[in-house]
Design a protein that fits this description.
By secondary structure, the protein is mainly alpha-helical. The chain is 68% helix and 6% strand. The two termini are 39 Å apart.
Length: 306
């Protein structure tokens, strides 16, 4: 039986937003008290912490986020070394410094306490949800396609183990499934031969979220490409006949629309395959428990607005 799991991204996103609304202030306060005000450094420290004892390289980050500017990643790593958060091992290899290790240890321990203290579901229901999510994640790991599950493989590096608080474990498996969705989508679009920057620009135009290079640079500042770089990407997509320029704006061609929908369908096929381990009743049970958890964790501002 084929299950559609498209619903998962929305409900899991709601849960993450609710958790963040209740914990982010304390986490941000902690990192700022440690002298870590640069969020980019924080990301690098956490990844280097998780990859121990192996070093991280620019390719570690480029492969996980192929949409980002690789030159910026190299610069960010060098900057984190200068600020004392990473150590340069030579040969473009880096590891977390002792100072970075202390901050990361404290951050993960604080997160464990904060997530464990959240009012969520009764323990038996949370344990059941964890069991269902674990089954889906393990099925995803064993699937032959996509062959490369690089994003999903990160989950094991950041697992807090079987003795972690229930909500910490549930969060880990939910994040693993977000990562697997990334793997599924990357596997779906890479055969078309576009760069990550081109594909994201193409997707933004296809979705109607942007139509010019200026809009892309404005809406994707965290990718660290400027307007000129996005204009070059859009022109490349027009050369492929995926986009057409209409005045100053770009729009998806019929060919582009078909191709982009093919990639979306392939993404769904890969992602849905992980859920075949659940029968119909289990699928509905998992959906129900996640929906219940999302309702319990609804961000406070949404509760006030109702």
């Amino acid at each position: 039986m084929t299950h559609s799991a498209r619903w998962y991204m929305d409900v899991a996103g709601q849960i993450m937003a609710g958790m963040g609304a209740r914990t982010n202030d304390a986490l941000i306060q902690y990192v700022e008290e440690q002298g870590l005000s640069d969020r980019l450094d924080l990301n690098l420290i956490q990844v280097a912490w998780g990859f121990r004892p192996d070093p991280v390289t620019p390719e570690t980050f480029v492969k996980r986020t192929p949409y980002a500017n690789p030159d910026d990643i190299v610069s960010r790593l060098a900057g984190a070394v200068e600020r004392g958060w990473l150590e340069d091992l030579g040969g473009n290899r880096y590891t977390v410094s002792n100072r970075g290790m202390e901050v990361a240890d404290g951050l993960f321990e604080l997160g464990d306490r904060l997530f464990a203290a959240l009012e969520t579901l009764p323990g038996t229901e949370l344990e059941r949800l964890i069991a269902l999510l674990f089954t889906v994640v393990e099925t995803a790991r064993q699937l032959p396609e996509p062959a490369d599950k690089y994003a999903l493989s990160w989950g094991a590096k950041f697992s807090r183990g079987p003795d972690a608080p229930l909500m910490v474990r549930a969060r880990r498996f939910m994040l693993d499934l977000f990562s697997y969705r990334d793997d599924a989508h990357i596997a779906a679009w890479q055969p078309y031969g576009a760069s990550g920057q081109e594909w994201e620009a193409f997707s933004m135009v296809w979705q109607g979220d942007a139509s010019t290079a200026a809009e892309l640079a404005e809406k994707l500042p965290y990718r660290h490409y400027d307007e000129a770089a996005y204009e070059e990407a859009l022109q490349s997509l027009a050369t492929r006949a995926w986009l057409v320029k209409e005045g100053q704006a770009y729009a998806a061609t019929e060919k582009g629309k078909r191709l982009r929908q093919e990639a979306e369908d392939a993404t769904d096929r890969y992602f849905d395959a992980a859920w075949v381990c659940l029968n119909e009743a289990e699928m509905e049970e998992c959906k129900g428990l996640l929906g219940k958890l999302a309702a319990v964790l609804k961000p406070p501002e949404e509760e006030l607005a109702e």
